[in-house]
Amino acid sequence: MDIQRYCDVEPQSYTSPGTTTILSHLHYLLPESHKRMQLVKSVTGIIYNKIVNEWFVRLQNNYYSNYLEIQKRVHDETNLTIDALYTDNRRDIDYRVDFLKAVLDDGRNFGETEYYYFISDPERWTNEPAQEHCKYFIELADDIKKNGIKTPITALRIEGNNYQAKVEFDGEKKWNTLKDRTGYQLMEGAHRLAIAAYLGYDTIPVYVLNNPKFEIPDYTAYINKREEYYQSQAK
Length: 235
Description:
- By secondary structure, the protein is an alpha/beta fold.
- It has a domain at about 75-235.
- Helices cover about 50% and strands about 20% of the residues.
- It is built from eight helices and nine strands.
- The chain has helices at about 20-30, 30-45, 50-75, 90-105, 115-120, 130-145, 190-200, 220-235; strands spanning about 15, 75-80, 130, 155, 160-170, 170-180, 185-190, 205-210, 215.
- A four-stranded mixed sheet has the order 2-8-4-7, with helices on both faces.
- A hairpin with a 2-residue loop joins strand 5 (about 160-170) and strand 6 (about 170-180).
- Helix 1 crosses helix 3 (about 50-75), helix 4 (about 90-105) packs across helix 7 and helix 6 packs across helix 7.
- It is globular and about 45 Å long.
- The chain starts with 12 loop residues before the first strand and ends with a helix.
C-alpha cells in the first residue's frame, strides 16, 4: 500500500505504540533499582538527553514485554467480543477507528485527523514521530485485512462493580471511579482492537490475565480535556 500521499504534515513526537499504557503499569513492575532511577530523575529535576530517554523507554518496554510473555504462558487464549473491551475509559479506541475511516475510506491526510494530534500531544511523554506511527498503523490495518490477527491482544480481568482509572494532566495524577460494564480491561493491543472494530470483527483473540495491581488509564478523561485543542489543530 502506498501511504506516502497521506503524509502532509511535519513529523511530531509520539510514544511508540502501547508505551503510554506500559509506563502507567511500571510502578508495580520495575525492580527497586529502576524505581530509584525514576526517583532520582524526579527529585533532582535533571532533564535527560534524547539518548538516555530512549534507552530508558527501551529498558521499560523490554521489562514489561518479558513480564507479559511470562503471564501469557500460564493463561489460555480465548476470544472476546469487541464490545467487551470498548470500556468507558478507552475513548482513544474511537479516535483510532475514526482515524482509519478518515484515511482509508475518505482519503484524508494524517494531519486532518484528531487522532494525529492526540498521539503527538505535547502534554504527553512522547519521543517518536507521529508520522511514522501513522504509517505503521495503516500498514498494520492492511496486513490484518489480508491475513487476520496473528497475535492476540492482552486484557485484564476486572473483579467487582467498579474500577479505578488514572488520568495525568499538567503533572498531576487523578483517579476516577468508573462502573465496570464488561468485566475486562484492555492492557495491550489498542491498534489491533481498533482495526478489528473498523473491519467489522465480532470477536478478537485475547490473552486474559488476572492481576489487579495494574494501573488502568483513563484516556476518556484525558481526551475530554484536550479535545478542543485536537479539533483546532486538525485541518
